[in-house]
């Protein structure tokens, strides 16, 4: 039986914009997030406190947090790679901290310059300090299906990383098909393994749509009882340290699918579409979502 209600976590302002070549003005990012805040979303990942040399696009993280109009009903989250990032995030009064690492060595090294083993103590310190500061912490595991450097990922590798993150005290783990290679049989195999150790409520799925398989993977995840999905308006996004990684599954395409299946999200499709058109105008290029192609013709 499929879930009746699903939570969508919008990652467009962070995972989406981090990959853009031209710097988006802070005021445009703020307007983008303010518009997202009016759509019924209750969770927006708005930026990251990583090293500005690595991701110059999000170097204005603190200003974005300071300038957005916050709603009490919305959790405004940000990615944090280490203690330095956490200090900046707390200073900017982020609501929730997201730590991140990969299941595979190759991508972990390319993305955060550390081996998987070296990453655990760093994240442990971040989670400890974040919890002490009264923040909730979400964990991301990237390359859960395959890695651009190391090939296929074994589901047991993902379970092992998730166990370590939950031991640290994260409240939920988001499983990232970072390069969008996964197909439903692989997602099913991964979830089958994960659900031996964790409850469905502890898991979120984060699909990139590089090969057009993201929505199929969502349906497979729904049938396994997953009720949390990450997506980005317009299908923005891609990991700068995973060559060829296309955007996240588009929020409006995901909404269309879920709503037509009778699954509630509390989010207005129309508002999301208009916000996608807004950011498309700022970026000055056509975004890839299917719903937008229809809306543009109307
Ligand atoms: P590093 O160079 O190894 O860092 O980078 P370090 O710890 O050796 O520090 C070097 C210098 O950087 C020091 O300064 C630090 O203070 C400074 P110095 O003492 O030399 O003057 N520094 C910082 N400054 C500001 N903010 C910080 C910070 N950290 C160190 N946070 C590091 C290691 C992790 C920082 C770097 O590799 C990095 O920033 N990587 C970011 C990678 C990234 O943002 N990737 C994209 C997000 S992940 C993603 O998108 C996946 C996801 O979508 C899920 C999926 O799809 O799978 C979430
Ligand atoms: Mg991603």
From TrEMBL:
InterPro entries (UniProt xref): Aldolase_TIM, HMGL, PYR_CT
Signal peptide limits: none
Entries under NCBIfam families matching the protein: PRK05692.1
Domain Pyruvate carboxyltransferase: 6-273
Alphabetized UniProt keyword annotations: Lyase, Metal-binding
GO molecular function: hydroxymethylglutaryl-CoA lyase activity; metal ion binding
Keyword Lyase (UniProt): yes
The protein, known as: Hydroxymethylglutaryl-CoA lyase
Organism: Ureibacillus yapensis
Pfam families: HMGL-like
Family the UniProt entry places it in: Belongs to the HMG-CoA lyase family.
Biological process per Gene Ontology, one example term: ketone body biosynthetic process
SUPFAM superfamilies attached to this UniProt entry: Aldolase
